[in-house]
Amino acid sequence: LLFLSGTGGKDRRSGLILTIPLCLEQTSMDELSVTLDYLLSIPSEKCKARGFTVIVDGRKSQWNVVKTVVLMLQNVVPAEVSLVCVVKPDEFWDKKVTHFCFWKEKDRLGFEVILVSANKLTRYIEPCQLTEDFGGTLTYDHMDWLNKRLVFEKFTKESTSLLDELALINNGSDKGTQQERERSIDLNFLPSVDPETVLQTGHELLSELQQRRFNGSEGGVSWSPMDDELLAQPQVMKLLDSLREQYTRYQEVCRQRSKRTQLEEIQQKVMQVVNWLEGPGSEQLRTQWGIGDSIRASQALQQKHEEIESQHSEWFAVYVELNQQIAALLNAGDEEDLVELKALQQQLSDVCYRQASQLEFRQNLLQAALEFHSVAQDLSQQLDGLLGMLCVDVAPADGASIQQTLKLLEEKLKSVDLGLQGLREKGQSLLDQISNQASWAYGKDVTIENKENVDHIQGVMEDMQLRKQRCEDMVDVRRLKMLQMVQLFKCEEDAAQAVEWLSELLDALLKTHIRLGDDAQETKVLLEKHRKFVDVAQSTYDYGRQLLQATVVLCQSLRCTSRSSGDTLPRLNRVWKQFTVTSEERVHRLETAVAFHSAAEKILQECPEQPEAFNDMDQFDEIEAVGKSLLDRLTVPVVYPDGSEQYFGSPSDMASAAEHIREKMKLVSLKKQQLRQPEATTPES
After folding, report:
1. How far apart, in whole angstroms, are the C-alpha atoms of residue 249 and residue 167?
2. Which candidate, 99, 146, 291, 543, has a CA 20 to 30 Å from the CA of 164?
3. Taking every annotated instance into account, which residue ranges of this chain make up the domain CRAL-TRIO (predicted)?
């Protein structure tokens, strides 16, 4: 293994020192030659002019290898080498070198060769310029130097290549036409290495070179850098300056290219959006002009419109993104692109807003159509329900149910009126929107489509108006019929009530009209009251008869058979006959009582000093006969035409009335006896 180092030390002539350590293993002369050529290429010409001192460390090698190396130096660097110091092993080569003396070969070799022990090397080179291997004090780390050298050479190679690439890119961007400039940039746009990485490597390398420290100087001992390192610093600085300059231009080229690419991409996307909205998007809307003829049809059109809106939404999202990108570019403030960007933004906004307005208009139109058809359907259902109600024959149970049905009918008719009014409002609103539809037609004649829609809307409203008018006519007829039925039920109810009232009068006549009076005057008053009572009953009977006659007329008008009048008339006549019989019996009793009381009171009130007044004893017999007849009548029930019987009052009431008559008859009998006694005494005297 060949290990060659340049320690950085200098000889007394300020020439550089090269150290060639040899080892026991086989040394490749070709590799050694290449390595020497490389090392000798590092110093500057000025340094080379001062010559080299070469230290060949042969302490671990064989003599023939050392001799070969020394002879090779003659072929590789004869002019640059001024002194070759062969470090020999202690007393090993003394006998072998007698046949070959390097000092005799100085003229042929071109440089002086000396054999020296390691501890005597300081005679030729200062200890401070020798490493510790040769008894010197020079601090040197070969691996550190090698690593730095590799970094330097890598940086030099990469930066030089990068400079060529950047120059090609930058120079290509300065060509005359835009087409040539873009073609040149496209071919060499990306450098083979990252400029940032190369610049960072160069800065780190320059920093280390300027610090003048190596890994081997960590102990605090510092040393002056070699000439090759001093030479490397300006090289690195020059490369860095060139790189920064070219990289700055490259960044500007990239920025311009990126801006142009971004602008072209934006322009391309803008045209994609505009072309789609003005092409397929507008065509979709052009084919959608109908409003449907029912709720289901309008909903289907709405669903189709939602699909169209969904497709538009994707492009509107692209529009929002593009608008943001354009706004960002406008904020950047590049004067050369402002006009073009604003034109793109305006074009994109105009098309998108126009298309969005069309979508919104179409959506509002379909929503209005759906509401119109919904109101029309509700109104149609209301009319169907009202018509169904009118087509069913009315068979209510009583007047209250008729009133309830009539109220429900009026409510339905009012609801239909409100529904028709709402339909007209919705229809007019829809017609107004359709009249504005032509403004979105993009030059297309939509008169036919609009006429169909207008005819449909007007046809629906006219049909609903006719149906509503027919229902109103039927409602008028039904209302009249139901009012007649209400009147019929009212007449029947009132007639039944008259029967009840007459029954109550009959009952009152039998149960409460019992007294016959205590004297003729009272009896006459009772008789007068009875006649009035009979007049009330007569009025009630006549009222019931009139009501029943009205029910007959109403039934004939309604063409129906009353369910209650057929029973009410017989009941009314039966009760009236019973009342008439009872009333006549009551009148007869009262008239008999008046005759009885009048006759009895006349006799009882006459003075006894006028006996001529009592000459006719037949009066007493007549009064007695009337009283007995009255008493007999009080015990007889009232017999009705149907054979049934009823008594006036209770037996106790009749007994009380009879007792009063008997007492009066006793008074009359006593009066008769008093009159007879004077007649009996007169003949005797």
Report:
1. 9
2. 146
3. 1-142
